[in-house]
Write a structure and sequence with these properties.
Order of helices and strands: HHHHH
Distance between the termini: 64 Å
Helix content: 55-70%
Strand content: under 5%
């Protein structure tokens, strides 16, 4: 079977989208029509998200924080909140972890979120105010 429309109309690779769809245990096979539709809808969703985030940017530069802000503020994007948390600095992460250690709270959820934030926090650490709190 061929795809309903030409692949050149799409910007995302069909093979990659098909691999992602088939990674779900409930999916055995993916037909060409649903594959095309899911790919096209994904492109439209990403485009809309990027446009909304770009509107919130002040200097004609789209950054992670702009997209994360849109995700955190829009209730319809709730399903993305764990995937795209707001970026925090390493200093802020250490403060949070120190407070949790003082309370004896061991939550895996925050450590997963902040491990991805640690890698990218070097960029934003210069904008962090020195309001460290000692617990």
């Amino acid at each position: 079977m061929s795809t309903p429309k030409a692949e050149k109309d799409l910007h995302l690779p069909l093979s990659r989208v098909k691999t992602i769809m088939k990674s779900s245990p409930e999916v055995d096979a993916v037909g060409p029509e649903p594959l095309y539709l899911v790919t096209k809808v994904t492109e439209l969703f990403v485009t809309d998200l990027a446009k909304r985030a770009f509107k919130n940017s002040k200097n004609n530069l789209l950054e992670y924080k702009h997209i994360a802000d849109v995700v955190q503020e829009d209730d319809t994007l709730d399903f993305l909140r764990e995937i795209m948390p707001r970026k925090i600095t390493v200093r802020k992460f250490k403060e949070i972890m120190a407070k949790k250690a003082a309370r004896g709270d061991n939550s895996d959820e925050s450590s997963e979120e902040s491990s991805s934030d640690e890698d990218s926090s070097d960029e934003s650490s210069s904008s962090n105010s020195p309001d460290s709190q000692n617990s």
